[in-house]
Task: structure prediction
Amino acid sequence: MALAATGPERREMKSVFISVRLIQIVILVAFGTAGFAQGGKTDPGGKKQAAPSGLTGVGGGGNESTAAKPGEADGAGNLLLGGERHPLYRLRPSDVLEVTFTVAPEFNQVLTVQPDGYITLKDAGMLAAQGLTVPEFREQVQRAYAGYLHDPEAAVALKDFEKPFFVVGGEVGKPGKYELRSDTTVAEAVEIAGGFTQQAKHSQVVLFRRVNDDLVEARLLNLKKMLKQNGLKEDAHLRPGDLVYVPQNAISKMARFLSRPSMSMYMNSSQF
Result:
């Protein structure tokens, strides 16, 4: 036979019961909110939908392709919002690379990219390098030595490479090849090369820009008018490999695109 609880005992049991209920409510609220935030919504058919995410990098959600994070190498930000591309350097002929192996120093070597774009690995033969980034080249080296070493781990360092350059020829004080170290315009390039000579045709300076291996774009610039009217906003900005040519006589007509062999008529090789 159960004994009836006294007044103080009933109050204590009621207090314990209320405390337990409060703990249960807190747990339900906490786990329910987390489940809603992480689990997403449920459609009328009872299937769970993935929660929307604002991430644009890896793990941004689902199997959909996502954009790389702005600022990362080989990624692109939103160009409309001021984002910039950050392409990785790609190997060219005459580049020098140092390859080192963690557990096999006998395979350490210094390599130069040949004019044909290949390099010759010690004991592993020839490997195409031109056009590859350094990480891609490292993967190719490790793959080439997979038959010689167990799980080869290689480190690749770019030791030397061709610096960006531009060439100024024709009627300037010091025609030649110059490093393109910063943002440079055609007018600035002429000044770097010693300025115009007295025979220079200021109004018909030609900017040659390579389009591909067989085609060169030619652009005619009136630097005389630009400098006289302070219209330097129209001055063209150089890109690596550009050629600025200052003629002595007027050039009446010029096709916009020229084959590379035809450029020799505008240049005197003895100037360089």
